[in-house]
Amino acid sequence: MPTSSDDRIRIAEAQFPKPFTGGLEFNAPAHGTWNIVHIGFKIPRAHQIYICADNCMRGVVMTAAEMGELSRFSSVILEEDDMVFAGRLEESTIEGVTDVLNSLPEVPPVVIVFPVCVHKFMGCDINFIYDELSKRFPDVKFVRGFMDPVMQKRGTTPDQRLRKAMFDIIPEGEKDGSVTVIGCDMPLSEDNDIRILLEAKGIKIRDEAACRTLEDYYALGCCDRLVCSYPAGLLGTTALAKRIDKPLTYIPFTFGYDAIDSDLKEIGVTPDPDGRTSCDKAASDLKMLIGDNEIAIDYTAVPRPLSLARFLISRGFNVKKIYLDAIDPDEKEDFEWLVSNAPDTMLCATMHVKGRRLGKNESDEKILAIGQKAAWFEGTEYFVNMIEGGGLYGYAGIKAFLKLMEDAFIVPKDTEDIIPRKGLGCCCVL
Q: Which of 1, 34, 82, 234 meets the CB 3.0–4.6 Å disulfide criterion with 38?
């Protein structure tokens, strides 16, 4: 099967797991997903320090300001001389971070230091920088961030590496019968079978996304099992599980009944025996409302968009487009099902340069979008405003998700106001 150099391709003709070739890219103005600044602030009392040229600093400063967190944010500006003289880049980084920490009212217990692309280009000795900073500030836990978007096409992404570095400071803890849910930016929803069924058995849950104190964050290692619910968090959670010698279960929000039953049994709980029937009933009722109106899905809304598309299409919904740039290898079974059963479903790139011309729906047809990027590309005001699965999971999660689709189909949203706002679910002063 071919790889498309265009911005869209029939799923029956798409190559798995990379349906599109690389090239000049477009960044859609849908900013609900979290960036590295949002993610770093998940550690309570952590201070972030970015070291880069002033032209690159604008975006991260604005994010911190929008969150009302400038008191926990600092920057060190690099100039041309820092790239010219041998050893100057290391010196400027170390002395800049030192000056920042000495100027604060009190030295924070956790500091996330973000070198940038130029540190890699110049062959900077990163280990030396962190070693020296640790000697100067022995009571500080330094987290190794990296703001290097130019490297995101090779290996792991910056946010994957940041999450791993953030988990590296979690100490090993005793087994206390609890379960730690970690790796997702959205806290567990009330409509989440993991939460519902564990709490019904009296099992304590520690949720990384809901930590309010640094002590809570450090206690994440005190558990019998780790549960990761988001693909971008799996790298760090796997490393953490190995280091603290705890079993790990990977449970992203899926719409496959068999996968739900298997995953829940793995963490020691019994799935709702009426879950399948109640979900099918909710889906049938929703189909009566939506009818044949077109549905578009994007990968930022749920971690497994092909699973969602399969769920909806198999129940008669008119899913026309799935916006993504690559396919999660774990969705191969859903991909193959769609190829066989819905071959005309279009896969649409979100980063292709042609995307800059989209975002306007000139037809009178009502389109329901699932996710902010799908809403922007389709130019619709009817959309489910969600990222990372919204903390949902299981049969309770599916029913809550279908209710969100119902609400989105009935009540229009102010797309132009919502779409540009950064970090859905974060505190925001805007």
A: 34
Q: In Å, what is the CA distance from 316 to each residue of 27, 226, 284, 375, 407?
A: 33, 37, 9, 21, 19
d(CA 37, CA 167): 16
Residue 1 pLDDT exceeds 60? no
Cβ atoms 296, 377 nearer than 8 A:
yes
Q: Which of 411, 195, 397, 188 is nearest to 311 (CA)?
A: 397
Q: Is 3 among the domain residues?
A: no
Angle of helix 394-410 relative to helix 275-290, nearest 10 degrees, comes to: 10
Model pLDDT for residues 402-425, shown as the tens digit of each residue = 999 999 999 999 999 999 899 999
The last residue of one of the domains, among 242, 266, 290, is 266
Structural domain for 283, as ranges: 8-27+275-418
If asked whether residues 137 and 231 sit together in one domain, one would say: no
Tens digits of residue pLDDT in 77-106: 998 888 777 678 999 999 999 999 999 999
pLDDT tens digits for range 117-160? 888 888 899 999 999 999 999 999 999 998 876 665 667 888 99
| Contact between residue 353 and residue 6 where contact means Cβ atoms under 8 Å apart | no
Question: Which of 277, 294, 298 lies closest to 371, judged by CA?
Answer: 298
Q: Is residue 159 part of a domain?
A: no
Asked if pLDDT for residue 363 goes beyond 70, the answer is no
The pTM of the full predicted model, rounded to 2 decimals, is: 0.94
Q: What is the C-alpha to C-alpha distance for residues 233 and 157, in angstroms, rounded to an integer?
A: 11
Task: Identify the pLDDT of residue 302.
Answer: 98
Could you tell me the two tokens for 151?
């490297």
